[in-house]
Amino acid sequence: MTTLETADAQAWDVRELVPHAGRMSLLSGLLSHSGESLEAEVRISDDDLFFDPQLGGVGAWLGIEYMAQAVAAWAGLQGRQRGEAPKIGFLLGSRKYTASRSTFALGDVLRVQVRREFQADNGLGQFEGQILIGDEPVAQARLTVFGPPDPQRFLKDGDLGDE
Q: How many CA atoms lie less than 13 Å away from 17 in the CB half-sphere?
């Protein structure tokens, strides 16, 4: 991933881009972004919502949510550039999630990278994601997401709101 627009990405507070609140906002910060990709950081600490003292960290299954929130941050940046507030989106599924470890340990600093592969006009998209510790890839997946034009209308009526 290129680190284009690194200073611009670091200027944004994740809470201004991702519609998750409180402890459910899992990203620690943004590192870089471009038109098609974003890199975020997650610092594993013992006050994380999903921290398990018996594991000494968080289960690696949480990597899917880290990637999904990085996609949400990417979408939030795209919206902010158009003058829009962040919108909720939906993780429809993941394919081929693999992790080389079962736990992200206390003190680990994760680099969460996502890159858009395609996005249809109706809001359906696919992203390639990976998590690195240092330069070592430790997890990867392909995420299918959906961002309807009017999420509240979609939740209420199942209507895409594109008419």
A: 28
**C-beta neighbour count of 32 within 10 angstroms:** 20
Q: What is the pLDDT of residue 1?
A: 40
Give me the CATH code for the 6-157 domain, please.
Answer: 3.10.129.10
pTM attached to this predicted model: 0.89
Alpha-carbon distance of 6 to 29, in angstroms, equals 12
- What is the tens place of the pLDDT at every residue in 102-125? 999 999 999 999 999 999 988 899
Name 13's Cβ contacts closer than 8 Å, sequence gap at least 6. none
Q: Does residue 100 carry a pLDDT above 90? A: yes
